[in-house]
């Protein structure tokens, strides 16, 4: 997604339609490639290649956008300025911050070294390490295959367990499941934050014989001894060490330093402090936020962003026209939980953890159809419709599918 979008416009434009062509967009970005990250689970699972998940950044930016190949190094919201890595200062009238989250592998001692040196230590979270996962799955012989979930907010909270289910599937196919302990160690007290889907996932865990350990946080990796050390979050002085044959690590995450350290813009956890229904910054009305870097209390996913973009578009223009904003965002997010090669639970929910299902069948049941949606349809939806501004979430289709009833 875009990282930081600095827009200027001329406020005397009478109508939005006339105003649109006069909006000047500047995007400050430093990555040369844009990744469709939801595909990383399928890459780690061996069903797609990394090349299929990336495009040149320049090719996905909309026409008329001025791309500044630089990074934001300081925000100065009182003076409406952003300082960049090359020493420039950009002034703005309105700003949308969409910087995502940083992957902090370095905060777990020994993890970076293990990822660099040990072919059996991998992570779907980084394009650098994701291709190691399927190789490790196939090279696995016997012992513990450990999957971790850190003690921080993460993007796609389902991804750390999806790869455990795909690994279980491969192990069975390759006839080595009986020699493996597939272990999911999560810092959370439950397997998933939404009750309905947590119940379905617990059935999956039981059926597959996966060892689930809650409140376990990875604090050290000793690759020379093939040991992973966890703290018990209910009793932090207690450390539990497991021998691993394969380790899939989900790193601790935070907002990028430039945002985290700008106290005027963030909440106590370092996330962009915005109104959860309008996406407008709580102190600076000319700043909006979208995506993983915000403190929206919902799951951090592309699916959530698709709905957020609709609200952002509406409210940014209302703000520019000096009109009252509309509290439109209900926290919609979604996570296609692959529970095997051809089965998926399509979780969709709101801020309160209430299901907001698009299809008129029980999406809590593992089914084949959502698997094909995830593998075959969603990548096209992303490249062709979301990045081009034509897809703004399934809201209207949900109503249609439910014959106008429900939310
Ligand atoms: C393994 C995995 C599986 C996932 N599965 C799913 C799924 O099934 N469904 C789903 O909907 N979502 C899924 N997601 C989550 C989804 O990919 C993210 O929620 C989404 O990409 C977040 O978009 P974003 O724009 O907020 O952040 P990002 O996509 O991370 O973009 C942030 C951008 O900001 C740039 N940036 C950062 N700092 C600076 C700076 N200082 N200056 C300039 N630019 C900067 C970065 O370079 C980056 O380009 C998954 C993610 C992963 C990793």
Automatic annotation (TrEMBL):
Needed co-factor(s): FAD
Keyword Magnesium: no
Molecular functions (GO terms): FAD binding; glutathione-dependent sulfide quinone oxidoreductase activity; quinone binding; sulfide:quinone oxidoreductase activity
InterPro entries named among the record's database cross-references: FAD/NAD-bd_sf, Sulphide_quinone_reductase
Keywords: FAD, Flavoprotein, Mitochondrion, Oxidoreductase, Quinone, Transit peptide
Compartments, as annotated in UniProt: Mitochondrion
Gene3D superfamilies per record: FAD/NAD(P)-binding domain (3.50.50.60)
Catalysed reaction, written as an equation: ubiquinone-10 + hydrogen sulfide + glutathione + H(+) = S-sulfanylglutathione + ubiquinol-10; ubiquinone-10 + hydrogen sulfide + sulfite + 2 H(+) = ubiquinol-10 + thiosulfate; a quinone + hydrogen sulfide + glutathione + H(+) = S-sulfanylglutathione + a quinol
Broad class of the protein's primary localization: mitochondrion
GO cellular component terms attached to this protein's record: mitochondrion
GO biological process: sulfide oxidation, using sulfide:quinone oxidoreductase
Enzymatic class: oxidoreductase
Enzyme nomenclature, EC number: 1.8.5.8
Plastid found in the keyword field: no
Similarity comment: family membership: Belongs to the SQRD family.
PANTHER family recorded: SULFIDE:QUINONE OXIDOREDUCTASE, SULFIDE:QUINONE OXIDOREDUCTASE, MITOCHONDRIAL
Cited function: Catalyzes the oxidation of hydrogen sulfide with the help of a quinone, such as ubiquinone-10, giving rise to thiosulfate and ultimately to sulfane (molecular sulfur) atoms. Requires an additional electron acceptor; can use sulfite, sulfide or cyanide (in vitro). It is believed the in vivo electron acceptor is glutathione.
Protein name: Sulfide:quinone oxidoreductase, mitochondrial
């Amino acid at each position: 997604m875009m990282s930081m979008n600095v827009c200027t416009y001329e406020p005397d434009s009478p109508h939005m339609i006339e105003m649109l062509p006069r909006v000047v967009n500047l995007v400050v970005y430093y990555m040369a490639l844009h990744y469709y990250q939801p595909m990383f689970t399928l890459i780690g699972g061996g069903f797609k290649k990394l090349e299929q998940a990336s495009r040149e950044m320049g090719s996905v930016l909309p026409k008329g956008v001025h791309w500044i190949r630089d990074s934001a190094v300081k925000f100065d919201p009182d003076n409406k300025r952003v300082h960049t890595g090359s020493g420039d200062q950009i002034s703005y009238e309105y700003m949308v911050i969409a910087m995502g989250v940083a992957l902090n592998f370095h905060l777990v001692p020994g993890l970076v070294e293990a990822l660099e040196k040990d072919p059996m230590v991998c992570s779907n979270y980084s394009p650098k390490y994701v291709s190691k996962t399927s190789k490790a799955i196939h090279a696995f012989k016997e012992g513990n295959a450990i999957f971790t979930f850190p003690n921080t907010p993460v993007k796609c909270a389902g991804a750390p367990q999806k790869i455990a289910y795909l690994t279980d599937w491969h192990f069975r196919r390759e006839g080595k499941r009986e020699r493996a302990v597939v272990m999911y160690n999560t810092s959370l007290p439950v397997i998933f934050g939404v009750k309905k889907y947590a119940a379905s996932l617990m059935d999956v865990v039981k059926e597959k014989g996966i060892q689930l350990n809650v409140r376990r946080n990875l604090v050290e990796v000793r690759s020379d001894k093939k040991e992973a050390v966890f703290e018990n979050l209910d009793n932090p002085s207690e450390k539990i060490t497991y021998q691993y044959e394969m380790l899939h690590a989900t790193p601790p995450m935070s907002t990028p330093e430039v945002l985290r350290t700008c106290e005027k813009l963030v909440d106590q956890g370092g996330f962009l402090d915005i109104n959860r229904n309008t996406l407008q910054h709580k102190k600076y009305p000319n700043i909006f936020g979208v995506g993983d870097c915000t403190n929206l209390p919902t799951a951090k996913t592309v699916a959530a962003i698709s709905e957020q973009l609709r609200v952002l578009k509406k409210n940014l223009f209302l703000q520019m026209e000096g009109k009252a904003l509309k509290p439109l965002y209900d926290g919609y997010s979604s996570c296609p939980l692959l529970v095997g090669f051809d089965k998926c639970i399509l979780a969709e929910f709101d801020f309160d953890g209430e299901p907001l299902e698009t299809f008129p069948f029980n999406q809590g049941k593992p089914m084949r159809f959502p698997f094909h949606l995830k593998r075959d349809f969603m990548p096209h939806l992303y490249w062709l419709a979301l990045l081009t501004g034509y897809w703004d979430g399934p809201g209207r289709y949900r109503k249609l599918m439910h014959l106008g009833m429900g939310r």
